[in-house]
Amino acid sequence: MNQQVRRRFSLPKLDLLQHPLASLEIDGAVEPVRRAYRACLERATPPDWTEAVGIRWALTELGARTPVVPPLTARLRPAAADNAPGWPSAHFTEIINDLADHAQVILYSQFWRVDAGGTYGVSGPALDWELDWTAPWEHLVEESRIWSLLEASEAPAGDDIFVVPTWIDRTDLYPER
Fold it and tell me: How far apart are CA 163 and CA 169, in angstroms?
């Protein structure tokens, strides 16, 4: 990372959860972050590894990446005022199928319990599945659908359980296409 970008990140104490990176107006940050992501792709770093996930998050927060959120998936998400992460677990199967029907690959999912005391991580099925990232995109979509549906069949459920799937679009794996 060049000195100019590093200097811009050293702002006075700032709660990034309250202020998205995009609001920091970091001049010139997008291109180095894009280069870092391209380097991940060139090294064949799996897109579900922490480095790639973190870089995509940064690109999204900087306004340089727009995740694909199909209409049904968007409608099923609770209103922001609900302060719940993700989607009610009762809709997990619908979300999986909607994402796959819109050519999205689900990388993994996390589960959360929300009650008056706060938000807590909940153990999921832990199926430990991996995709063959050399396979054609359509195969990746269907494989992730199959594994995610299996995960949904064993996932924690309840009115206070929410699921947060992480997914990518074809352009995340093949940015030039």
Answer: 19
Q: What pLDDT is attached to residue 2?
A: 35
The neighbour count for residue 50, using CB atoms within 10 Å, is 8
Give CA–CA dist 40/125, Å, rounded. Answer: 28
Q: How far is CA 176 from CA 38, 41, 95, 100, 153, in A?
A: 10, 12, 27, 22, 36
- Identify the sign of the CA torsion 127, 132, 133, 138: negative
Contacts made by residues 25-34, CB under 8 angstroms, sequence distance 24+ = 26/62, 28/2, 28/4, 29/5, 29/62, 30/59, 30/62, 30/63, 30/64, 32/1, 32/2, 32/5, 33/58, 33/59, 33/62, 33/64, 34/59, 34/64
pLDDT beyond 50 at 23: yes
| Sign of the torsion formed by the C-alpha atoms of 80, 85, 89 and 94 | positive
Q: Letter for the amino acid at 123?
A: S
Do the beta carbons of residue 134 and residue 140 sit within 8 Å? Answer: no
Condensed to tens digits (0 to 9), the pLDDT of residues 101-132 reads 999 999 999 999 988 878 999 998 888 899 99
Which token pair is 105? 């690959």
